[in-house]
């Protein structure tokens, strides 16, 4: 027993948090492009940008105009149709959005000084780190080891780690909004069982509120039920 405890202590002393040598939010290689906004205001914090180009026709042996369109993130909703902008790749915000606006080169209509400023790269990274830490605080409360390690690394690097109340604030706001919508996010009665959860979001909320002891008790009951059926 003493040797096992000694080995465990030695292993713990040699363990190095892998997130100490990594950034809290990974960065990727990016390229800069110039394009014209062709659609704005139809998506939340996103616009469609057209980039002019040329395509070589090997039969005619001549270049022809060939444009490409991209979905571009607009964090402050500052762009309008007709703006000439500079955007950067390597900033994924959804499945189809992998670019973000970095500057308005030539505005169309409203002057730049009358619009919401475009966030700089450092401001965008700081906001993403804050969102990452908020998510890690919620996951650490659920017992996720990776989230705990990342929080420890953030503290050692000098970042301010938010509290659980702040991390859960946006989640509660979204839940309240869904409850107000009516059928979405509210508890429904099905098959005579009152209190049955009626949406995936509500089920996740109930799961988060369970304690570690409740989760272990549920696993034990399910295991005993499987053993009785076999």
UniProtKB/TrEMBL annotation:
GO molecular-function term, one example from the UniProt record: structural constituent of ribosome
Keyword Ribosomal protein listed: yes
Region (Disordered): 175-230
Top-level taxon in the UniProt lineage: Eukaryota
Name this protein carries in UniProt: Nucleic acid-binding protein
Extent of Basic and acidic residues compositional bias: 200-230
GO BP, sorted A to Z: translation
Keywords (A to Z) from UniProt: Ribonucleoprotein, Ribosomal protein
GO cellular component: ribonucleoprotein complex; ribosome
Record family assignment: Belongs to the universal ribosomal protein uS17 family.
SUPFAM superfamilies referenced in this protein's UniProt entry, alphabetically: Nucleic acid-binding proteins
């Amino acid at each position: 027993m003493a040797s096992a405890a000694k080995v465990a202590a030695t292993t713990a002393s040699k363990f190095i948090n892998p997130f100490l040598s990594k950034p809290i939010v990974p960065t990727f290689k990016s390229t800069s492009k110039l394009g014209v906004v062709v659609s704005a205001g139809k998506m939340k914090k996103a616009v469609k940008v057209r980039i002019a180009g040329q395509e070589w026709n090997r039969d005619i042996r001549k270049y022809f105009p060939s444009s490409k369109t991209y979905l571009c993130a607009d964090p402050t909703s500052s762009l309008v149709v007709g703006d000439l902008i500079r955007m950067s790749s390597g900033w994924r915000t959804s499945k189809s959005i992998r670019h973000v606006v970095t500057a308005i080169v030539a505005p169309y209509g409203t002057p730049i000084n009358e619009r919401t400023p475009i966030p700089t790269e450092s401001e965008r990274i700081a906001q993403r780190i804050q969102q990452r830490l908020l998510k890690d605080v919620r996951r650490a409360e659920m017992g996720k080891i990776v989230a705990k390690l990342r929080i420890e690394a953030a503290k050692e690097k000098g970042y301010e780690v938010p509290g659980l109340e702040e991390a859960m604030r946006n989640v509660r706001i979204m839940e309240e909004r869904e409850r107000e919508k009516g059928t979405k996010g509210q508890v429904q009665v099905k098959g005579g069982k009152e209190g049955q959860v009626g949406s995936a979001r509500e089920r996740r909320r109930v799961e988060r509120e369970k304690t570690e002891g409740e989760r272990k008790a549920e696993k034990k009951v399910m295991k005993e039920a499987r053993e009785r059926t076999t």
